[in-house]
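Table S2 (continued). Query chain:
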Amino acid sequence: MTFNFEEELKKLPNKPGVYIMRDALDTILYVGKAVNLHNRVRSYFRPNIGRGPSIDKMVTLIARFEYIVTDTELEALVLENNLIKEHSPKYNTLLKDDKTYPYIKVTVGEDFPRILFAREMKKDKAKYFGPYTSAGAVKDTIDLLNKLYQLRTCNRNLPRDTGLERPCLNHHIKQCLAPCQGYISQEDYRQRIEGALSFLNGNYNSVLKDLEQKMQAAAENLEFEEAAKYRDLYNSVKSVAQKQKINEGIGEDKDIIAMSKDDTDAVVQVFFIRDGKLIGREHFYMTKVSGVPKEEILGEFVKQFYAGTPFIPKELMLQYEIEDMELIEKWLGGRRGSRVYLRVPKKGSKEKLLELAAKNASLVLTQDREKMKREEGRTIGAVKEIADILGLSQVNRMEAFDISNISGFANVGSMVVYEKGKPKRSDYRKFKIKTVSGPDDYACMREVLTRRFVHGMEEAKALQEQEIDQEFGSFTKFPDLLLMDGGRGQVNIALEVLEELHIDIPVCGMVKDDNHRTRGLYFNNVELPIDTRSEGFKLITRIQDEAHRFAIEYHKSLRGKAQVKSVLDEIPGVGPTRRKALMRHFQSIEDVKLADVEALCQVPEIPQHVAEAIVSYFQNE
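Corresponding output:
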């Protein structure tokens, strides 16, 4: 049925709620909230009143709209956030990086607690510290604490599993006191956990003092390696402690939020202050910001980011006043469980922090744009350079092939794919040579190319008969340029295969010098020079190295599988599972050979008849 806009606009209630705009394919274009649905939705269909080109374009695509009435504007705000997060509508300003922040989890509910990396807080008996902004910093801190207090990192159920297995490597290198063997009491281990908890709560002085004393004692006893170990730990702890010395207030939790924007992109920078200490910062990209005011972008960020983060600070310091500040305060207060304040500082240290955050956001925006330009030079620019050297109008997809073997053993071929100068690893393919037995690279290359293109043609035909888009076929997309890891010989093989299959694709050889380094390109029976300092040459080298690496990696895997064989595999009734069980129990083949039937039957996986077969085999060997 045709959607009657005039009739549906009349039905809109004068109540708060959320409205959803859809196109002709029923795709959600935009989600918004309104204090008054009747007034807000009708405004989209009036003559242009300065909504901006993006919203004007969206309005022309609206085929129908729907709405959800809520009791309060606060409920509408929450629902709007949920729908935006779920559907990512095309015309909503979106938070690009939907991250979860790491925590340090201490499993204090266990008899022998562990310190773990966690991505979310759960309702368990563990203690959580964070959230932190850097996963790397969290892992470094966990590693430091485990080494410092010699805590266990295994997942054994203690004390139930005590003594069931040998201690791990960490115990042998003196990084774990092996509670799994009963080498430390629960009370002594708990004291070490308390030290780690104290450290995580910011009490570094006792740790520094203890490490300094141990370092000096080891030095006095001429145990210089031990002293060096304590020195390194001391420096690590001191480094962690110093990072916490930027203070803003006493014991306060707040986020400082500022942004920078150009015509197409926006970056929001957040400084995280916890317990009065600046613990880190993070930046976020906002998309679809063209023509959108900064205040609106900042407001969308606050709503979307704090709808997903598990921790809500007491204060948000904002660069600009945003719409619905009181309403958002109420919503965030409900999530936090206590009042939250949104403020826009105009002077003092808080304003200086906002300026600093804004400068950082601007720096990220500038640097990333320059990085993108450099990356474009390395990829798209390099491809254009290659196309110009070869006199081709357009090169998008390039495929390179290589052969790997050792004296003809386990011949394999590789196919790597680059699109717009970047590797497309999902299209890489490996070939196990079927028709060539011996070191004949030309014959191997002929087989690989024939299989690649015949498969592509057959796949394309099958998809065409089923009326399926050829993009769904892995081999159907043919390259704009074939790159051969060699000169005239390899190029001629490729040209012969393509001619036999009636396929027209340019073929270029990568010519090497006496030191096996690429010196030029062989194309149309001519060797073309290429500037070895250019991005085009660097791209050719990367493609060549990648094809070579991929082929060798596959060859090694096949060679390794062929060599992994045990004498036990020759015995009837002994497969991989029983072989592993025997080696776990007896440790060596010699011990298996010396075992009698009774000893072999002590292995749970070995029945009587198999034990007899093993003894008989080695007796007759």
